[in-house]
Amino acid sequence: MIVFDNVTITFGNGAHALKDVSFAIGEGEFVIVEGHSGAGKTSMMRAVIKDLPISSGKIVIEGDDLSKISSKNLPLLRRKISVVFQDFKLLMDRTIAENIDLALDIIGLEGDVVKKRRNELLELTGLKGKENFFPIQLSGGEVQRVAIARALAPQPKVLFADEPTGNLDAKTGMSIIKLLQDINEQGTTVVMATHDLELVKDLKLRRLRLDEGKLVHDSGAHKHHVKTEPSEPNKDKEKVEET
Amino acid sequence: MKKFSNTLKYMRRSPYQSLAAIFMTTVTFFIVSIFTFVVLGASSMLGYFESRPQVTAFFKDEAMVDDIDKLKTDISTAIAVESVRFISKDDALEIYKKQNADNPLLLEMVTADILPASLEVSAKSVDDLESIAGIMQKNNSVEEVVFQKDVIDTLRKWVSGVRIAGLVLSSLLIFASLTTIVVILGLKFTAKKTEINTLSLLGATSWYIRGPFVVEGMIYSVTGAVIGFGLAYLVLLYMTPNIVEFLQDITLLPVPLWVVMSMLGGEVILGLTIGALASLIATRRYGR
Predict the structure, then answer these.
(1) Among A65, A64, A76, A34, which Cα is nearest to A166's?
(2) Which chain B residues have a beta carbon less than 8 Å from that of A146?
(3) How far is A76 from chain B (nearest CA, A)?
């Protein structure tokens, strides 16, 4: 589904955000991208939605070479691959409902359909009853859930979550991972980036480890071969225990 | 409809910028409307004079009926004319009385003796006026010859001047309005850069992002067009009695409704064009 083929991202000052990174992620997988701050996790996510240009290599999404996707078709890609940003990117002057509705409006939904879909998302993310709150009135975990709900609005095939547990305590962090697993169980491919190795150490999920822009470990590499069609979805995911 | 109400909401959030844009476009369309009214009126006046090419010969007091008849024959033989009308001293007095009916002092002072008899010749073409005037001037019984060619030439120059001045001034003001809207929408676009970036990352199309700004630009200029035209029309209505009195026989006013509606429609279309163009420039320029 997603193939990175020797992808390198070099900034103007010569620093590498990613260097010769190759991996493939299959449909329905839940993958953890781990690494310390500055390892290249965010750059990788930005590259997938073409928010950051790559210097060399190739990214293929569902068989389409990312470099060949025109700016006109870019919105379609970004509806297929949603990102939960590290800084949430919520509109602070709008309520939770309005933030979610915005994403639904973008994909052209109107009226009752918006209301129905919004309620489904609020239900899924456990935010029912908070729809008229503003982001500033919510806790860190709740804000993260709003960002996830909004990212799920266009029913993406892939959900990238960039440090979704970054500023949360362990308990809230685990509840977010549980939510992401629920989403994954419903068929969405989930890629979660984190620097918190302790939080995810017990999860039996595929891991990609980045270090200074290089892919130093891929626990599922034996199943995926770059430049080939993605293999079977990850069947041996382990559900996180409720904490 | 939702986009339209959202745009109005954004406009209310920065009312002074919105007012500045509307004020500028109102001034522009007020001036455009005034010039359009003046040019239309002057063109109609020109048409009026051109459709009534007339030469008038005023006779000396001692002119005899034979002299007048001879002049009539000379003109009719030489040039094809529309009509020839003799106005005696008594007829002239009657006309004078009608024209000054509301001024008894003037009426008391004038008698038929001091008014000259005259011959009014309506030509078929403005080009014949000079030839007719030449024949009249050769007649010894003619004291003075007055014809409209000078009036028409002056009016033509005047209409042309007003048209050029109007076009230049209107163009400058339209450019100023366009620039004002570009700057104001550019500022708003820049202020919402974070939100726009988020929309883009969420998969919003270019038109989804730029659409509200384009609508906003069009609202500014169309509002300006309607208010500017309305003010100019009010000025015209206010001045109508004076203009009617000044023009006397030339009936230009009231302006027919279809002309008013056509002008308004034209200005609204011009406003939509200016607003759309300005907002497209602003979103393209500041969206980089």
Answers:
(1) A34
(2) none
(3) 6
